[in-house]
Amino acid sequence: MAASAAASSAAGPTAAELYAQVATQGGLIRDMKAAGKNKDELAADVAKLKDLKAALKAAMEAEGGEDKWDVPKEALDNTLTRRMFVVPSFELYNGVAGLYDFGPPGTAFKDNLLAFWRRHFVYEEGMLQLECTTLTPEPVLKTSGHVDKFTDLMVKDSAGECFRADKLLEDAIDDLVKKDSEMTPDRREELRQIRAMADAFTPEELGGHLRALGVVSPSTGEAFAEDPFPFNLMFATSIGPAGDLRGFLRPETAQGMFMNFRRLLDYNGGRVPFAATQIGSAYRNEIAPRNGLLRVREFTMAEIEHFVHPERKEHPKFASVASDVMTLFPATNQTTDGKTVQMTIGDAVASKLVDNETLGYFLARTQRFLFASGIKPAGLRFRQHLRTEMAHYATDCWDAEILMASGWVECVGHADRSCYDLDVHARARKTSLEASERLPEPVTVTELSCIPNKGALGKRYKKAAKPLLSFLSELDGEGVAAIKAQADAGPVTVTVEGTEFELVEGDLTFKECTRKVTMRKFTPSVIEPSFGIGRVMQGVFEHTFYVRPDDEARGVFGFPAEVAPFKAAVMAVDSRIPDEFLHRARSALTAAGLSVIVDDSGVAIGRKYARADEVGVPFAVTIDGVTTTEGTVTVRERDSMRQIRVALSDLAATIGAMCRGEDTWESVEARAAGADAATSVASAVVGAVTGAVAAAAGAVSSAFAASPAAPAAAVSPKVFDRSHGLPTSITGTAKGAEAVVMEGGDRKIGRFARPAVSIL
């Protein structure tokens, strides 16, 4: 895919050098024209200029890195729709932008991808899986910041049509760079840096760049009259028949896990670290849905909230991934040379490029998951968030970006969210969302405590004093210090559960006390990997799709067997094969938990293979005449199109092992080749034995013809049965010899059978 600048320099002139040559050659031609040279005299120099421009374009692409995944997009989109992987929702009513349905192969692929995700993360790490409601009351999302800050910047044209402003800027820069082959390297680099910052600009900054580049409305062709403005992406709704409880369809699954933190902590025996996870739907009212599954309004997320001590973010299994080499795109490089770096995750954590082991562990595990799902290494990088992109509370954030036909696409976010989420909800609800740890040794601490005058407060506030007293008793050291600072200056005003209380002199007594503690409370930090499943699916579609070199009309999805929608396709070589054998093969596979499709149509076998290839079936099982006589089937591997014969009784075990990653096609094929070779040797031995027996029989016949007649009982009539012209039994075997079974003999010789004999 992408070539480095160093490689470009080694292969020839750099883009900057070629730009200078283009400028020089262009000046030479202008001078020649001014001197009156004719077209023929200019031809050679014009041709040289064209060659230099082509070389400049290639060098700029090589140094800048490939920004599009090379896939036959039209054929891919046609196959996805025609084979019903993904289709527009409500198509009968002309559809709704940003809403899609999954057909049978799409649903099966998504199910298998999620099942693999569970095995890779949930089961491997012992995570606690939840399923929370998608309806979320407004106070929850108000506290989390979504009500005020979950926005994209939008512009509206004179016709009232809305567009996402940062995407307009990115598209405009892409178009400008593509069309202007003579753009200077400095200007190209300036635009690249602006593009990298597109979603981090303020409304005023973004508006300034749109005006500077002359960006206009795609619909009206007119400039936008106003700067971009924020648009909240959440779908609002009302809960209950009265409509007085405002809510939203959740924009992420994370908040449900934070709401259940105390119960999860208790379920886990009070131990930290632990991880919670949830797979489910999320909803975002996208301004301009586009690019199929990449920007939709309803989608599936798979999120992990890994709770860890804020001062101890080591991971016990980090050593198992430390040597994994990763392509990283640090924040500093995004605003300078724009180049990625390759290093082990161990080195990245040691150098503090990646903040801590737990974050690094999940980055590496995500990479392994994506590679195993079908993403190619050349099309995956991990981009660090710029400081302007990260929330103020975040420690470090990295996105797994997959290169697609539309460019680099964020598919998995990894964020160290510190203690923010639990802290804000704890403050809002005035409750503890803390964990505890036992100290190695008791520690003596001096604390400032607040002692309320219950009698005075009870007399003044009556029943309303109860929540006030509860609030004061739960104050931590910082809270008590803050109350004391106010009390020293005069009356203290506090609000508890919506009620305001004034505390005057005599209501509170502050006292320092010393005590030994053996437990310490802390609010856990959260490391959050967040997967957009639809985007990962689109990435796998683009990275695994190809067409046969000898037939561009034959599209193939090269899904890894573990995530393929169907593991096997069972088919008959032609219509003369009894259905019984198709059913036997299918039942054997499904009984082993393998998803199967059966093609019992009357089309040619090649067409059946093509159908299976289009939905990514890794193994095609063909029933032929030999199956009916010998009990073996042909198994064809999708990508190599090579075939082996497998006993019907071994079919499910053989394919199941390959689908689970316990065996490989190459190993199975090698064993089959070894078995065939052994069979050939056995056949040769049988042939030699048969020849020797025939020669002995001839000698015996000659001897009898030349000798006097003997009594009939002297020769066993079972030694030779000439009904097939070949011996079928011998009344004994030589010492150490094995009985050999030969195929054919009494079977009809035709398209579906081979001749065989049996020596018992």
Automatic annotation (TrEMBL):
Biological process according to GO: mitochondrial glycyl-tRNA aminoacylation
MF terms (GO), sorted A to Z: ATP binding; glycine-tRNA ligase activity; transferase activity
The EC number(s) this enzyme carries: 6.1.1.14
Keywords of this entry: Aminoacyl-tRNA synthetase, ATP-binding, Coiled coil, Cytoplasm, Ligase, Nucleotide-binding, Protein biosynthesis, Transferase
Domain Aminoacyl-transfer RNA synthetases class-II family profile: 194-549
Coiled coil residues, start to end: 32-59
Record-linked NCBIfam families: glyS_dimeric, PRK04173.1
Subunit: Homodimer.
Protein name according to UniProt: glycine--tRNA ligase
Gene source species: Cafeteria roenbergensis
